[in-house]
Amino acid sequence: MHDHEQRLHAISAHRWRIAFVLSAIMLAAYYGFILLVAADVGVIQEMVRAGKSIPAAGLGDQITLGMRLSDGLSVGVLLGALVIVFAWVLTIIYTRWANGVYDREIEELSHLAR
Amino acid sequence: MPQTSTTSILFFFVFVSATLVITYWAAKRTKTTEHFYAAGRSITGFQNGLALAGDYMSAASFLGIAGLVALNGFDGLIYSTGWLVGWPIILFLIAEPLRNLGKYTFTDVVAYRLQQKPVRVAAAIGTMAVVLTYLIAQMVGSGTLIKLLFGIPYVWAEIIVGGVMIMYVLFGGMIATTWVQIIKACLLLGGAVAMALIVLSKFGFNPINLFAQAAKEGCDPTAAAGSQMFCYGGKVLEPGTKVVTGAWDAVSLGLALMFGTAGLPHILMRFYTVPNAKAARVSVMWATIWIGGFYLITFILGFGSMVLVGQKNILAAGGGGNMAAPLLANVIAGEVFFGFICAVAFATILAVVAGLTLAGAGALSHDLWVNVVRGGHAPQHEQMIAARAASLILGVCAVLLGIVFQGQNVAYMVGLTFSIAASANFPALVLSVFWRKFTTWGAVCSILFGAIGTLVLIYCGPTIQFDLLGPKAAAAGSPKEVVDAANAAIAAYKADIMAKWWYFPLKNPCIYTMTGSFLIGIVVSLLAPERAAQEGFNEVERRAVLGEPKGAAAE
Known about the structure:
heterodimer, A: 2 helices, B: 0% strand, disordered C terminus
């Protein structure tokens, strides 16, 4: 019984490690994006404070997210869309792993316990 | 703007009749509280994924984000991404322990090894704060919108929404609510995809062409001098200062959107409708796919209406940009489609308020009445009466609040809701599942600080003090002296408020309140350790992994 308890702990600790790592990756991706937005907003505010007007064509390369990859595609729009796609990929990977590998281990363990 | 035709009323009528038939069917199956709150745990992962998406994609995200993008371009993406990235976090950290430890509400999890009464009272306060602010935002939004879309007087719109919603919840409980969410999600996704395809067909099925077109449009020469409103140009593809006023505001808003999702009681409640943790994971996976796809589509709709409808026409239609999506429908596919999209927007509101009311009813009857007043021992039929009474009370409250707040600018309330959810509910939920030393009073203090702190800081912040209480700008087209005088008055007022000691500079306080809530929970728990709570943690750990012991579910 003691052994069973320990294995349960080990499996659950393993799952939590994976869950935390994935959460950290998601946070880093999203916060990377938000911090770029924040930095750009800082630049814009600085310009407004200095009395400069912002051209109608946008700031383009002067701010990180304004850089144009083509006429209609700025780095900002691309990264925003990529954050969403990234969230998809992470949830699908985790769900497949947890519903396959992890659940099978737990299942085996509860059979042993009985 | 096209006059609302009989088509939209017809579409809406079909939706309401179909959902009421489902409610009748569901009512016959709703015999116990397990049916009423958790749909008998019979919903599959895929179905629940759609229902979660239905619960989450409110009119604020459909009409609101489309409007935000149409008027500001890129800034709408801050909301879209923020509202989505909360979902993976729910999946990784919350879904599984929530499903395995709880019964009907997320409070079940927080209170699992702590003293029931204080924790349940505090968590019910946190839940009600979120539910009521969100209900006000939805009800006021819906009244205004329905008035615009269907030309029905505001008060009548409130009563219709409230009345139909009460029918769903009161008779059909979670079973009816779930199916309403699923139908609404399908209609919304289908409508949005159809619109996006028609828009893209005009741009060679390449969204980049659409963005390029939006960036090419120069300033509108007829726009009022000094107004940047119609001067979109290349700026639409870059961050601006409309949504966030500064760097810290961006970070704080990001926190609220991300972690607020993981603290919304009506979302958390949905995890009890599936049979096990496996299905709970599948449901979040599908919800993430649907919601993410929907936001990507909304982005296209926003830019589509910017180019095809024009910012001026969107603003002229009223509703602060909310009409962008319906107007786009009218421009690209005519009046019948416009009617269809209007009806979908109406259905969206109905479904979201039904989910909210059910979550609020859970807090009032399951947490407060059954577990606090009756000490956890109430016969089944009494629990059902309490649940239905609570739904009815909340439904009536929603209508009354909607009427009381008529004409108020409630856009900030959605942000407020997410901020409270992230500060009051999320820290307590996480600490109770992950931290052995968490105590009853740690939980109570953390929840109360999160709820009250957020409300106070929002009140002391720019949204309430400037936008709501401050002097208004002069009406467009006023003579120059009037405009100057109004601007001077605003500047003087702002300087005066900003000098006050209590002034809080951020629009969104989440960065302080959420961190504070975690800290207070930890400090209070460390100052007064609770033996019983620590001993109970082994059981929490075990059950979070294995779920309910077999046979105990029959209770």
